[in-house]
Specification:
This protein is of the alpha/beta class. The chain has 11 helices and 13 strands. The chain has helices at 39-46, 62-72, 84-96, 113-119, 162-171, 194-197, 225-236, 245-256, 258-281, 303-312, 336-352, and strands at 26-27, 79-82, 103-106, 124-127, 147-150, 177-180, 201-206, 219-222, 284-286, 293-298, 315-316, 318-319, 329-332. The chain binds 4'-deoxy-4'-aminopyridoxal-5'-phosphate.
């Protein structure tokens, strides 16, 4: 090792799901929405002019912040926006998790949490989920430097009831509790009302899933104005212009179309429930997902084998070769037609093996 390498920040990066170049794939591996964004987004894109690109974007992303605040009935000072919720969450880790005590998150959860903690040298402890993959709220009632969990959890899709989230918050008045609601629009109950009641709760959401805009990178946090100010202070100390002007304008157009959001979420949820029935019929077991994916294990066919067979048939799902979950596949909900093709392939494969 060269001498200078001693002082390099060495990290083991997060591994994003595959974004293959091939066409004609059924892509059920990264929890994207199978439906495009609102037609209002296309219209806003057409209205953009090339000349405005000379100028820096508004560092406060005011148009987007105020549209999000209107959507949820909040004040603008209660909203923070960033380049996807990954950016928002990275800022959250940097801003609020500065204790010497370990932060807590589930052992099976979004695999970026331990990456940010390691990169920022934040001590952490993982808290095992129960056997049925539910979060046990009592396990979070002990000394810690902060708490974060997704609701519904990823990659399990399992929801933690709001009363239990509130119990975690009540037991932890001295640290920040972050609820990562990337998938909440697909049927879980949001912890958003709790930001009015508790000053230490932060709810993080994204346009990547329910609004079908993963490619535009828009995430946001909602909390009381004091927390939002602390977040903005860190953001402006890092990079003032995190969001570009096209994204700000398109995000505003998306959030203003509530009817389209409801319509597409409804379609995804209907297809999810249909897929659950089919998977049960085919011998899979899974928790009751409230997200746009199902985390399922087959009673006799190993997940790794099925994953490889699906990949060969140009159907991509996600497989995590990790303790406790290495016999599960995370299957994103595509269009009804895509899910019918997925089910037909799996049924045929299982019957012929
Ligand atoms: N939180 C969870 C639980 C996720 O699964 C994801 C998606 N990878 C994110 C946050 C980040 O999503 P984005 O940065 O696209 O908003």
């Amino acid at each position: 090792m060269k001498k200078w390498e001693e002082n390099v920040r060495k990290v083991v990066p997060y591994t994003p799901g595959e974004q293959p170049k091939e066409q004609n794939l059924i892509k059920l591996n990264t929890n994207e929405n199978p439906y495009p964004p609102s037609p209002k987004v296309a219209q806003a894109l057409q209205e953009m002019t090339i000349d405005c690109m000379r100028l820096y974007p508004d560092p406060s992303a005011h148009l987007l912040v105020s549209a999000i605040a209107d959507f949820y009935g909040l004040k603008e000072e209660q909203v923070f926006v960033g380049v996807g919720s990954d950016d928002v969450l990275a800022m959250v880790f940097m801003t609020f998790f500065n204790s010497k005590k370990p932060i807590l998150f589930p052992d099976i959860t979004y695999s970026f949490y331990d990456v940010w903690a390691d990169m920022l040298r934040i001590p952490y402890e993982t808290v095992p989920l129960r056997e049925d993959f539910t979060i046990c709220a009592k396990d979070y009632c002990r000394e810690n430097g902060g708490i974060i969990f997704p609701n519904p959890n990823a990659p399990t899709g399992v929801e933690l009831p709001l009363a239990e989230i509130e119990a975690i918050i009540q037991a932890n008045p001295d640290v920040i509790v972050v609820v990562d609601e990337a998938y909440v629009d697909f049927g879980a109950e949001s912890a958003l009302p709790l930001i009015e009641k508790y000053d230490n709760v932060l709810v993080v959401q994204t346009f990547s899933k329910s609004r079908g805009m993963a490619g535009m990178r828009i995430g946001y946090a909602m909390a009381n104005p004091v927390l939002i100010k602390y977040l903005n202070d860190v953001k402006y100390s890092f990079n003032s212009y995190t969001m570009d002007q096209t994204t700000i304008a398109l995000g505003k157009a998306a959030v203003e179309d509530r009817a389209y959001l409801e319509e597409t979420v409804h379609k995804v949820v209907e297809t999810r429930e249909w897929t659950k029935r089919e998977l049960s019929r085919l011998g899979f077991v899974f928790g009751d997902s409230k997200a746009n994916f199902i985390f399922a294990a087959h009673k006799t066919c190993p997940a790794a084998e099925l994953f490889a067979a699906l990949r060969k048939a140009n159907i991509i799902v996600r497989y995590f070769n990790k303790p406790r979950i290495d016999n599960y596949l995370r299957i994103t909900i595509g269009t009804q037609k895509e899910m019918e093709a997925f089910v037909a392939f799996v049924e045929k494969y299982l019957s012929e093996r």
